[in-house]
């Protein structure tokens, strides 16, 4: 022990322990010594320092942090002080939140569990193999490279390779592979089966494709044509079933993205629409992708272009659920006022509990990667749902506001094929579906 050391007597439960005190070592090391001797955790350590005659010098060792640790070492060297340890009682447990009303929360829980089941299929190796069999990926990669070269030659803003390839995949899916269905064609005449008859239970083949409901239509000959709402994405990619509405589009396209190597998740809008989000490494964030509309990174298109009054928007992947509603609304206070189905705190805690359970079997490395990405996204969503700070008149304030402004500008910009203003998804209503149907839904943007 050198001249800077001292031995401090510590009394605990009638037993004396001797602690080494050094002026150059942090107080935390002293607390660790106390724990090793007594098994009392630092946050439970209540130490009273007093002289040999009982005069109290301090009721906590924390007063001797920093420069004052030298005084404690000096007192210890002179054996003119000792310490008495007691165990600080643990803080009272937090008051439990009132139990949620199961009648009110059950519908939301069912939606979350159903969304997770949809996402589970997107991560299935056999489902992805079947998707790769129908995607002309090499051809799409070549087209993406050609488009990137053309953009560079025109001195246009050039996206990274992962974004060009996603654009080509989106375009191929929308215009060359999958078809929108308002009402199915009659299986006998090939003409539209325009008369909706009602719903029917699925048969064995339809159940195997994940259908829980079947729409029935009467054609011009009187023949009844069935339109099963299939949910197994590889079945939707089969030649016989490459059609549907937004649910089928988003389900099948999310599988396509996963099959060619993108991280992708299925997104459910509770005001009745579905799309997906894709992680672009080049941008370091999740990007909105709507295969029905051939729209990429235009999250405000539903609120601004379609005129939707959004409430809850949930994103699902194999190992995570995320409430991404703030990404899709520029009028968050209005959106928040419409979110009355469940308490906000209940939804946040429920999602956190589900994510913990989903990620528990993963390797520490994988959990850490998901956690890091999730924290970055949480910061992004919190910023989007918070009112902007008052603008500062200083150059420092302008610099601090620049990253947030840049992120908002990206969200405002939108992206879709074509340079004409009519192709801007933020300034147009919904494009898919009959005009009559879109007007009935109030999604024409008029």
In short:
The chain is an alpha+beta fold and 446 residues long. The protein folds into three domains: 5-87, Ubiquitin-like (UB roll) (Roll), CATH 3.10.20; 100-170 and 248-364 and 440-446, Roll (C8orf32 fold); 182-244, N-terminal domain of TfIIb (Single Sheet).
Please characterize this protein's 3D structure.
- By secondary structure, the chain is α+β, with helices and mostly antiparallel strands.
- It folds into 3 domains: 5-87, Phosphatidylinositol 3-kinase Catalytic Subunit, Chain A, domain 1 (Ubiquitin-like (UB roll), Roll); 100-170 and 248-364 and 440-446, C8orf32 fold, CATH 3.10.620; 182-244, N-terminal domain of TfIIb, CATH 2.20.25.
- It is built from 15 helices and 16 strands.
- It has helices at residues 27-38, 69-77, 102-122, 125-132, 137-153, 161-177, 204-208, 233-236, 246-259, 301-306, 332-338, 344-359, 364-384, 395-413, 435-441, and strands spanning 5-12, 15-22, 45-51, 56-58, 81-87, 179-180, 195-200, 214-218, 224-228, 243-244, 264-269, 273-280, 285-290, 295-296, 313-317, 320-323.
- The strands form 4 sheets. Strands 14-13-12-11-15-16 form a 6-stranded antiparallel sheet. Strands 2-1-5-3-4 form a 5-stranded mixed sheet.
- It is elongated and about 110 Å long.
- The termini are far apart.
- The model is unreliable at 396-406 and 415-421 (pLDDT under 50).
